[in-house]
Amino acid sequence: MTVQITELTNDLLDGALDVFYESNLLHCAGAPDYFRRQPKEASRSYLEWVIGNEHSFGLVALADGKVAGIVFAAEEEKPDNLFVYQKYYKIYDIAVAEAFRGQKIGQALNDAVKERARANNIANIELEVFCFNEGAMAFYHKLGYTEVSKIMSLKV
Fold first, then answer.
1. Nearest Cα residue to 113 out of 84, 147, 146, 72
2. Kindly report the CA angle at 146 between 140 and 151, in degrees rounded to 5?
3. What CA–CA distances, in Å, run from 60 to 23, 48, 67?
């Protein structure tokens, strides 16, 4: 199998949407009080925003020409000077289709974001992972991510 990391473009949108939808179903199952199940097409506008926003970007992993994984991120900046890294990349979504897991596709996507960060003088990458997703947490730790905060939620 040949894996290629490339920019998300309109012609890859349907394949990226499939992977994103599969990831959303996983989140709905893991935290049904937090995530709402919706039709796959409901996320199309979000993926179009990723492509069209000047501060965001999307990458896809193509395995023998098929979209096997996605990562959506953006350059962000913390509003004050308390943080060592004011400018950073925030990964909003990273997912690998179940059929392609265990083949280092997620690592390749993360490596591509790191390369892009270095090329743009970005020294830090952040992401959010949900507590139920222990597999993802283990994966991120393996890649070198460390916990720096916890986001807590209160239903009112």
1. 72
2. 95
3. 14, 14, 6
- No. of helices (H) and no. of strands (E), the chain: 4, 5
71 and 8 Cβ atoms separated by less than 8 Å? no
Q: Which residue has the tokens 């905060």?
A: 149
Q: Are 16 and 69 in contact (CB under 8 A)?
A: no
pLDDT of residue 21: 97
**Domains of the chain, CATH where assigned:** 3-143 (3.40.630.30)
| Average pLDDT of the chain to the nearest whole number | 94
Within 8 A by CB and 6+ apart from 74, the residues are 53, 55, 56, 57, 89, 90, 92
Task: List per-block mean pLDDT (blocks of 10 residues) for the chain, which spans 156 residues.
Answer: 94 97 95 92 96 96 96 91 84 96 96 97 94 93 94 87
